[in-house]
Structures are given as structure tokens and as C-alpha cells.
């Protein structure tokens, strides 16, 4: 439901004019507005990179964490206070490079959070090196003769790791993206949204127009509960030599979250639980023997 809450902070974004981060900002702001969640119950966590400015432009709670470590920080916050709506926003270098191990484990544990990855296929903040998702042959500052590395498939990795909500959006279509983010927030479990984004300063290959000529929305009638179909869709871009790139919800499955299964958290969020006495800790350990 729409509401009159203003989720923006009024801080001036530091992104270059035309950067895809603006589209993600618009999509996330729209999703929050539609959901009408109290600002005091929303936490936005970022890592390092151009996308790390996201917590600053919102008036919710925010943490600007370390490079590749936003998921551990977000996980800790969620386990401490399960009443929080926890949203992580990072880049492809942050999440698919140094932070990919955290992504895999958060997905298999089904931590109840929404992870938005702004994927512009370049290291923008450090002025244009190849990232884990840079296409084969991409010429960057670190690969002047063209990248010789096969690009990572974020949707495929998320599916294989056990993420219970896997989607891909496009920064150039913030309305469609807002719907994916909204459903990801509503989903109980680990939701990841890979957002195709353009870097206007350092990536002259994957431009906004390049994406617009290739992206298409997953058609009606597609069954997002079918894992085999999701894997097939995840491989479509590579198999078509990037001539067709599907966006939308690839996969969704309802399964217990990490918080729902943890013996301590079954008693409620840690912030609402009294600190245990030494005797209670010893008794609890005895019960586990």
C-alpha cells in the first residue's frame, strides 16, 4: 500500500549523471513506499563501491560496511533483531568477487534478507578495472587486451547455492525493478536481485542502450517454482551470446528461514531476550549433551 512516509534523506547522491544507481535508488524507494514499512524497522547495509552511497540517500537505518562484507553485517543485524527488514545493496565487485563466499552461505542458510546487487560489469569506484561479471574480451584498465576470464553467472550461482528468491532486474526500468524488490522484501528467506546497470564513465560496452536492445521480461506462464526452468533461463544470456537477456523472477521457493530454525531465536529476537545468567548458560549446554 502507498503511504506518505518519505524514505529519502535529502542527501545529494555522488553518482555520475546517467549512472544506473539512480534507477536502483528509484526502484528501492518505490518498493518501500508501496510497502509502507516504518522507517525505524528498515536497515540498509552497503559494502564498498559506488553503490555504497545507498544507505546515505535513505532516511532509514543504514550501515556503510566493509568491502565484500555487507552480508555478514546484514546477517548479524537480522539475527539480533528479526523484526527488522534488512536490505543489502552492493556492487558486482563487492558481491560477486570478494564477497561471493558470503553470498553462497547466506543463500544456503536462507537468511531472511533482500540482497540487491548493482551489476555494471566493471569496478567503477577504482576507475575501471574488470570485475567478475565483465564479458569475455572486455577491454578495461586491468585488461587492455581484453578479458580472458569467463564471466560469473550471478543468477546461476544463486540458484546453485540455494537462494529461495532469485530475480534479475534492469536499472533502466525502475518500475519493473520496484516490483521485484517489493516481492523480494515480502519473501521470507534469502532474496537476491541481480540488477543489470550501466556505468557511464568506465564501461563503454554495456551501455544503457546495449541493455535495452537485449533485455526482455520473462513471459507470463513461466513457472518460477521449477528449478530446471530457472537454470535454463539463467544460462540463456550466455547461450545466446548476450543477444537475449531475460529479466524478472527466475525462482521462488518457500522454506524455513535460518531464524525460524535456530533454537535460540525461536524464543524471539535477541534484542527482546534477557541476557542469560551464567547458570542458565551452563544448563543450556548440559541440555545439548
Task: Give a structural overview.
The protein is an alpha/beta fold. It has a single domain (21-262), classed as Thiamin diphosphate (ThDP)-binding fold, Pyr/PP domains (Rossmann fold, 3-Layer(aba) Sandwich), CATH 3.40.50.970. The protein is 33% helix and 16% strand. It is built from 11 helices and 8 strands. The chain has helices at residues 21-35, 70-80, 92-98, 100-109, 154-161, 174-186, 208-212, 227-234, 236-239, 258-261, 278-287, and strands at 42-46, 61-64, 85-91, 113-119, 165-170, 190-196, 215-217, 245-252. Strands 2-1-3-4-6-5-8-7 form an 8-stranded mixed β-sheet, sandwiched between helices. Helix 1 (21-35) crosses helix 6 (174-186) and helix 3 (92-98) packs across helix 4. The protein is globular and about 65 Å long.
Amino acid at each position: 500500500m502507498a503511504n506518505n512516509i518519505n524514505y529519502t534523506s535529502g542527501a545529494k547522491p555522488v553518482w555520475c549523471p546517467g549512472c544506473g544507481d539512480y534507477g536502483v535508488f528509484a526502484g528501492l524507494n518505490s518498493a518501500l513506499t508501496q510497502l509502507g514499512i516504518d522507517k525505524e524497522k528498515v536497515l540498509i547495509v552497503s559494502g564498498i563501491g559506488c553503490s555504497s552511497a545507498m544507505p546515505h540517500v535513505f532516511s532509514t537505518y543504514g550501515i556503510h560496511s566493509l568491502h565484500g562484507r555487507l552480508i555478514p553485517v546484514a546477517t548479524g543485524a537480522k539475527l539480533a533483531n528479526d523484526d527488522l527488514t534488512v536490505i543489502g545493496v552492493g556492487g558486482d565487485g563487492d558481491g560477486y568477487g570478494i564477497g561471493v563466499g558470503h553470498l553462497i552461505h547466506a543463500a544456503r542458510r536462507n537468511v531472511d534478507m533482500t540482497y540487491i546487487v548493482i551489476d555494471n560489469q566493471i569496478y567503477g569506484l577504482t576507475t575501471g578495472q574488470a570485475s567478475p561479471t565483465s564479458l569475455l574480451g572486455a577491454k578495461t584498465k586491468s585488461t587492455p587486451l581484453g578479458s580472458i576470464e569467463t564471466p560469473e553467472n550471478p543468477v546461476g550461482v544463486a540458484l546453485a547455492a540455494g537462494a529461495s528468491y532469485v530475480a534479475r532486474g534492469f536499472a533502466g526500468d525502475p518500475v519493473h525493478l520496484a516490483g521485484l524488490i517489493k516481492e523480494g522484501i515480502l519473501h521470507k528467506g534469502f532474496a537476491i536481485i541481480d540488477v543489470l546497470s550501466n556505468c557511464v564513465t568506465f564501461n563503454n560496452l554495456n551501455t544503457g542502450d546495449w541493455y535495452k536492445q537485449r533485455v526482455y521480461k520473462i513471459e507470463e506462464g513461466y513457472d518460477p517454482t521449477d528449478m530446471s526452468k530457472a537454470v535454463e533461463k539463467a544460462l540463456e544470456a550466455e547461450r545466446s551470446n548476450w543477444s537475449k537477456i531475460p529479466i524478472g523472477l527466475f525462482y521462488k521457493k518457500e522454506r524455513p528461514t535460518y531464524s525460524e530454525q535456530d533454537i535460540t531465536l525461536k524464543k524471539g529476537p535477541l534484542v527482546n531476550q534477557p541476557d542469560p545468567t551464567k547458570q542458565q548458560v551452563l544448563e543450556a549446554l548440559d541440555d545439548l549433551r
